[in-house]
Design brief:
Elements (H helix, E strand, L loop, with lengths): L17 H36 L4 H6 L3 E2 L6 E2 L2 H32 L2 H15 L3 H19 L8 H25 L3 H9 L4 H12 L1 H17 L2 H7 L16 H9 L8 H31 L5
Antiparallel strand pairs: 1-2
């Protein structure tokens, strides 16, 4: 005698109260809202960028090394803005990834449950601090320290921006990585301990490799957050678009330029104003590519345990 399984959870189950049907439509509308918003943002950026690129060639925009859309002679090479963004991102990653990973290993493998319950919420609260506060922290605390070490450091400099953004994304790296490490089954840990492994060996040779997909995804999300950071970088790193190898000089990121144009006196419809959309579209493509890469890494290297 065969038994037929019936799925009553979703799909073909149209039987329900009016409240269930209304709730279904409300939930669908909420789920669709983010998709519609994303599509609207893309369309606005593309429409504004098309006006910009009708006056400036794409080759000049992508290969030019001078960005001066408001001061004559005007030039529209976006490379200084991309360089400033990548410099801040690389510097912040050098700080946040190792510190965040070691914090996650401590919370997952070494900390007592009481310590974990205390420290992790504090880290998550740190992630909720407004970014402009981080900017003032960089100006009033980090930059003076750098000036004592290297007196030629300017008031606005790339090093302070990278350091403060690195501090800002540490909670994201540590919290998401700790979640990934905590999801590793204890059977793997107990098997390693049974073979004589130390806690350090279990942490670095069993838990960390088993959670690598979640850890890498945390890295990429944090880096995407650093790419898109605005206020802290605007206050700490300055507003001078240039390509320099000296981290103690001011630079300008794409987000900082967008703030400058959005709050400045540039007339609507001018090429300077339209450049706002071209830079925004470039930034969107960069962060969108990082998110797609994060999803691919998570699906490619995800471990499933039973």
């Amino acid at each position: 005698m065969t038994q037929e399984r019936i799925d009553l959870s979703r799909g073909s189950n149209d039987v329900g109260t009016i409240g269930d049907r209304v709730a279904r439509y409300v939930f669908f509308a909420c789920a669709s809202l983010s998709v519609i918003t994303t599509v609207a943002i893309i369309l606005v950026l593309i429409e504004g960028s098309m006006d910009f690129f009708s006056h400036v060639s794409l080759v000049e925009f992508l290969t030019g090394t001078n960005w001066s859309p408001r001061i004559r002679p005007r030039s529209y090479g976006v490379l200084p803005l991309i360089y400033g963004t990548l410099l801040i991102t690389a510097g912040s990653a050098l700080i946040a990834l190792p510190v965040g990973t070691l914090t996650a290993i401590y919370l997952s493998e070494y900390a007592d449950p009481q310590v974990r319950r205390t420290v992790k919420p504090v880290l998550e609260v740190l992630a909720g601090v407004p970014t402009i506060v981080y900017g003032f922290f960089a100006l009033s605390f980090i930059t003076p320290i750098l000036q004592r070490i290297y007196p030629e450091t300017g008031t606005f400099n790339a090093a302070a921006g990278a350091i403060v953004v690195g501090i800002m994304i540490i909670p994201m790296v540590s919290s998401l990585s700790e979640d990934a490490m905590s999801s590793v089954p204890d059977d793997l840990r107990q098997a390693a301990y049974g073979l004589g492994a130390t806690r350090l060996e279990v942490s670095t040779q069993v838990v960390f490799p088993a959670s690598i997909s979640g850890v890498v995804a945390a890295y990429i999300l944090a880096i995407s957050r650093a790419i898109g950071e605005t206020m802290a970088v605007s206050l700490a790193a300055g507003m001078l678009p240039q390509i320099t190898t000296n981290p103690f000089e001011p630079i300008q990121t794409m987000t900082a330029y967008m703030v400058q144009i959005g709050t400045g006196d540039v007339s609507v419809g001018s090429i300077g104003y339209q450049s706002l959309f071209a830079v925004g579209l470039t930034l969107f493509i960069m962060t969108f590519s990082m998110n797609i890469f994060s999803m691919w890494v998570r699906s490619r290297y995800r471990e499933e345990y039973q």
